[in-house]
Amino acid sequence: xxxxxxxxxxxxxxxxxxxxxxxxxxxxxxxxxxxxxxxxxxxxxxxxxxxxxxxxxxxxxxxxxxxxxxxxxxxxxxxxxxxxxxxxxxxxxxxxxxxxxxxxxxxxxxxxxxxxxxxxxxxxxxxxxxxxxxxxxxxxxxxxxxxxxxxxxxxxxxxxxxxxxxxxxxxxxxxxxxxxxxxxxxxxxxxxxxxxxxxxxxxxxxxxxxxxxxxxxxxxxxxxxxxxxxxxxxxxxxxxxxxxxxxxxxxxxxxxxxxxxxxxxxxxxxxxxxxxxxxxxxxxxxxxxxxxxxxxxxxxxxxxxxxxxxxxxxxxxxxxxxxxxxxxxxxxxxxxxxxxxxxxxxxxxxxxxxxxxxxxxxxxxxxxxxxxxxxxxxxxxxxxxxxxxxxxxxxxxxxxxxxxxxxxxxxxxxxxxxxxxxxxxxxxxxxxxxxxxxxxxxxxxxxxxxxxxxxxxxxxxxxxxxxxxxxxxxxxxxxxxxxxxxxxxxxxxxxxxxxxxxxxxxxxxxxxxxxxxxxxxxxxxxxxxxxxxxxxxxxxxxxxxxxxxxxxxxxxxxxxxxxxxxxxxxxxxxxxxxxxxxxxxxxxxxxxxxxxxxxxxxxxxxxxxxxxxxxxxxxxxxxxxxxxxxxxxxxxxxxxxxxxxxxxxxxxxxxxxxxxxxxxxxxxxxxxxxxxxxxxxxxxxxxxxxxxxxxxxxxxxxxxxxxxxxxxxxxxxxxxxxxxxxxxxxxxxxxxxxxxxxxxxxxxxxx
Length: 751
Fold this sequence. Notes:
8-stranded mixed β-sheet, globular, FAD/NAD(P)-binding domain, 20% strand, 26 helices, 2 domains, 8-stranded parallel barrel, single chain, TIM Barrel
């Protein structure tokens, strides 16, 4: 096979040596525009797991790499004159040039030809090759040449960064946060040999301009940074190597291969330097591509197999990197607001890949100190004594909202059961909600309950609009209060344009085949093109709905609920006013966000005025519509602030379900970053939802300050006793109902 690698960085060199090792008959050429000893940057960093992959792929280069790296286990966080250390992380750094030297020598020993200072103007000159590797970096010429096939998407991030070196041998992977008169500066630093470290400085564009660095050359940048970090450098110098201020590009491609051409490394994808080295991704690409070519003799099939196998892992890492880079971009949000230990916890778990349990395995003392701090803070907030030794896991600390005290931080999400008769809950609802209250959750929120018959989603939805509804709900509330420590809330709503549809298992959001009722909404826009067209509400309709919500709130009070939540999310009636995708009104209830919030706030104020002052109220919102032209996270922050100003006690931060053409970006805890942002920018309690699957997820979210309460839906459908099982797994004792005291001391056999 004749192979040409355009680019002689780690991806091109490592792939070439692995292919030549696999079959010496391959004719492999690497063309590189730079000199052999000319590279950008200083050090590269690998995790221990990455090095294990290298050992399996090529023992010779692995041994040379490990003989020359600097290894460390600790991460140091410098914040507000404190240094917090977390141990047991396992990383290695080495000089980028040394890595290239090792790979170049290994290629030469195997018979790979390398041409340096060779500029390729058009990859078509290698059209006769069996395989052309586009390993030419973030500004890939090859990717640009075949852009219509690769469909690149490049997101240039807003922060500025500069890549420097230093003679200060940092003993740990180090994060420095320092304020100056210009703003906040972040440093990512790590040692790559016995006496040298990489020193990456990052800041916002506003701070960068305030400091005059938009007019600085390399020498002026170096002098500024040495002055700024004189104390942290302890007399050591900073070094430059093409140290120009840059914006980080997040590179994605719709496709990684075309004919005999394949993208690898930064040409195919990038992941922010805050989460790991692009070199790691590049070399792992090389390993995956070689394996695919060994499995498939046909090159196009091999390239397709390589992409199918490799893309999911890269995209998972890119999602984590996106969350991580956003954390650093928005570090001003946390700086000064978080105490040092929680700031460090937030930083260490920022990508959502490192968790409370993961840190506990690496450094139990650090996590124990976090848990003690969190317990003390919970005691102050709730005015309830919390054990300090041992401190409970964060999820088992109390939380107070107005006059309501929750014994832990777990909430059962309101989940429609579609089992009511004309809005009346029955035995199914009693067992469904009662079992989850006994199951240990602190707060059980009854399903979306509609304020009128015509406000239901389906014929099976619960309501609070007939006198008999009060007694039916009171039966459930009384059971929870008598037999569990849990509190119980009611979520009030009106389905709006998403009403008059079939039961979930008959077709979600699909119109009823018969027996439809008229719909209302902010504007006369159907949910699906074939859905019923709602009436755009006039003032009379608004007054009617206003009265229905007030009536329902008073009925909820009579039923004894501990809390109310208003549903202003997921495209239902109140949400239809908030989103510009569903509100195209030209009156005072349309247009700006302030106008679009006018009617939802009228409803909130009316309900708050009808609900006992000592009992809390929350609101569920969609923080983004996941659709072009819809609500943004900035809008969500603004509307949460409006709700807080009107007396809202907590916001349940959900997303989407506004329009059927939404394009959510799913992933682990994918909605939690929205809660995090609202919690800090608005200073309001938040409840987070979405893909929270484990106690570790909950503890990680809470300890890092990303939410005050965690709301689980499917987890509680699968296991009504989810909270009790979580307590058992963590060695924490929960109080049992008298009827179940015999379970104390029982050890379940899981296999």
